Amino acid sequence: MKTSLLGIAKREKWALGLAAFVIVGVPLLNAAGIFPDLWLNLFGRYFCFALAALGIGLVWGQTGILSLCQALFFCLGGYAIGMHMLLKTGTAGVYGSALPDFMVWNQVKELPFFWVPFRHFPVALFLALAVPVAAASIFGFFAFRSRIKGVYFSIITQALALAAWLIFLRNDTMLGGTNGLTDFKTLLGMPLAEPGTKRILYVAAAGTLAAAYFGCRALVGSKLGKILVAIRDSEQRVRFTGFSVARYKLFIFAFGALLAAVGGILYVPQTGIITPGRMDVKASLEMIVWVAVGGRATLAGPILGAVGVSLCYSWLTGTFPGSWLYFLGFLFIAVVLFFPDGAAGAFLRLKARLQARKRARGAAPEVPGDGTPPPAAAPEAAKAPLAETRA
Length: 391
Hints:
By secondary structure, the chain is mostly helical. Helix content is 71%, strand content 2%.
C-alpha cells in the first residue's frame, strides 16, 4: 500500500513538472527566440484537440459510450467565439461594412437576430459553452432514456454530426456556408497577429488542458468515476443495484461536450478560421483515432494521442502530400491489432511486466554460506515464481 502511494505521488510530481514546463517554460523559450512561433501556435492548437479527446476518453474510455459527434460540439464552441470576433472586426473587413464580409457578398442588408447577442464577449462565451452542453443534454436525454447503446448509439451520433454539417454548409443559415468564418482581427482588443497574443492564447490552451486533466483525474478517482466504470463493464448489473444509469450517462456525455466546446473556443482564435469541415463525420472519426492510438483506458492516453497523431499529420502532409492518409491508416490498424489498449496501455503493460520480473528475481532463494542447499519448497510455491518469471 505504501509503495502504491509512493508511485502515485511520483506520477503526480512528473505530471505537475511537465505541466509547469509546458505552461511556463515553453512561452519563456519562445519569448527568448529559442522556441519558434510556428511551433508555439501548432502546439496551442494541438492542446485544443487534446481537450476534445479528453472528453472522448471520459465518455468512451471510462463509460463505454462510443460517440461520433464530438467534433460537432467542438465546432459549436468555435463558431460562437468566431461570431463574436467577426462582429468586433467592424469596418476593418474587405468591404468596409459593419456586417461580416460574407453577408455583404450575399447581399444581406441587416444583421440576423441570432448574431446580435454575440456582440458582447461575456454573452458570447456563455453561449459558446451553453449551446453545446444544451445540444448534448437534449440529444442524450432522449437517447439514454430509450436505452440506446452500443453500435446503435454510435450510428445516431454519426447521423447527428452529418445533419449538422449539412445545415452549416447552407448559405441561408448565415454562418458562412462552406467557407465558414474567418478574417478575425482581435480578441478582447488584442491583435491576433501579435506574438504576445499568440503566447497568451497558447498559455490559455495549455493551462486549461492541465486543469481539465487534473479535474478529470479527480472525477475518475471519485465515487462517480467508479460508477461510470461499472456502467462500462456491466450496465445491466448497475441498473439492478438501483442506480439511474441514464442520468450518469447523460451527465458524462454533456461533460464531454463541455470539454470539446472549451477546446473549440480556444482553437478558433489560434487558427483564424472555422468551417463546417471541422464538424463532419470524418473529423469525429479522427478524434476517435486519437483516443484509440493514445489509449482510451487512461486519461493521459487521449492527450498523447491527439498531440502525437496531429504531429504525424503535420509532418506527413508536408513530406508525403499524396499518400499521407495511407500512413495514418496503417498506424491505426497497427495499433488496433498489436496494441489494443493504445500507446499508454502498452507502456503500462510493459512497466507491470518489468516490475513483476524484478519482484521475481528479488524473491529467488539464496544459498547459505556453508553451501547447504535451501529447504525444498512446496510444489505450488515452487511453480508460482517460475510462472511469474516466464510471464
